[in-house]
Amino acid sequence: MISKNYKYALLLLLTAVIWGTAFVAQSKGSEYVGMWTFIGVRFAIAAVIMFGTVLVNDKIFKNRQNSDKAGEAEDSKKTSTRRDIKAGVICGLLLFIASSFQQAGINMGASAGKAGFLTAIYIILVPIISFFALKKKIGINVWLGVLIALLGLYMLCMKGSFSFTLPDIYLLLCALFFSFQILAVDHYAAGVDVFVMSTVEYLVCGVLGIIMTIIFEIVPQGMGSWTGSLSGAGAWITILYAAVFSSCLGYTFQNIGQSKVQPTLASLLFSLESVFAALAGWVLIHQKMTVREIIGCILVFAAVIVAQLRKSEETS
Q1: SS3 of residue 110 by DSSP
Q2: Is the dihedral of CA 308, 310, 315, 316 positive or negative?
Q3: What are the CA-CA distances from residue 229 to residues 31, 37, 155, 236, 242 (Å)?
Q4: How far is CA 274 from each of CA 61, 73, 174, 291, rounded to the nearest angstrom?
Q5: Among residues 172, 195, 148, 133, which one has the least CA distance to residue 298?
Q6: Minimal CA–CA distance to 292: which of 160, 189, 119, 164?
Q7: pLDDT tens digits for 42-77?
Q8: How far is 23 from 5, CA to CA, in rounded Å?
Q9: Residue 74 and residue 81: Cα distance in Å, rounded?
């Protein structure tokens, strides 16, 4: 039967829609600025927006506090905040590493289709790591869904010969670290304030991205050349779109949704990103879809349904 946590699964589905439709902005962004600039500025903006959200929530929380229990609540809040920060730092490090490997692979010449497929390998890595390293049982229907999704993604994304190069290795490393990030979010999300965790996560990515920008882009190119790349409207449109939608909304929805959805099922829902990216290209910019790509989309959708038809043996 359908999981009782279907609302959280729908939130992860919305995350896949956001990431898929934002793929155009992320790809176009690389035409205007360097990879480190895009990563650093994008996540720095996302951190500022999320910090404002945390302040608003904190103000509402304080206004609702009973004055007799204010001291006890404050002590509890300090403990919770330390846990939130720790979760955000760990998830942020993993997200930064995964994003960096992905962007490096794309910048070195990997096609968008191949990049999408190799990145989506996390849908098979997550259950394998969960089963062997974390000793979590996974239902046979979920394993079947993973295999169907993998076949569907291959048909959707791969359009040429399949051979491994250095960019492909980077993309596989990206998939590995995205697997770790998904499992880390699963470990922490249920017991933390996801808004604080998300803020710290984005801040870590933003700070590391800016440090790498200074080392690898500003110092070699010069400040004038670097600021010039950011002067155009196109650069800021793509960065802001990625910051607000892919980061603020997408990764925050991931953190909320994964508090109730098992990581293997979450990774399957995230794999729909490739489907929505293809559909967005078809609807918004009139890119044609082949019969092979349509079959791939149908298989990925079917895989998600198969994975949820019966309750998995893994506890949500």
Answers
A1: coil
A2: positive
A3: 10, 10, 37, 10, 17
A4: 38, 44, 16, 16
A5: 148
A6: 160
A7: 999 999 999 998 888 766 555 544 444 445 455 556
A8: 28
A9: 10
* pTM listed for this prediction: 0.83
Which residue matches tokens 């790809």?
27
Q: Cα–Cα distances in Å, from 72 out to 64, 84, 193, 236?
A: 14, 18, 18, 45
How does DSSP classify residue 222?
Answer: -
Amino acid at 271: S
Contact 211, 98 (CB under 8 A): no
| Helical packing angle, 194-213 and 35-63, nearest 10° | 150
Q: What is the CA radius of gyration of the chain?
A: 20
Half-sphere exposure for 213 (CA within 13 Å, toward CB): 24
Q: Nearest to residue 149, comparing CAs of 274, 310, 3, 16?
A: 274
pLDDT tens digits, 238-291:
999 999 998 999 999 999 999 888 888 898 888 888 788 777 767 766 667 788
Q: Which residues contact 205 (CB under 8 A, 6 or more apart)?
A: 39, 40, 43, 47, 92, 95, 96, 99
Question: For residue 244, what are the CA distances in angstroms to 90, 102, 252, 259, 309?
Answer: 22, 20, 11, 22, 33
Instruction: Quote the CA–CA distance of 14 and 270 in Å, as a whole number.
Output: 9
Alpha carbons 214 and 40: distance in angstroms, whole number: 10
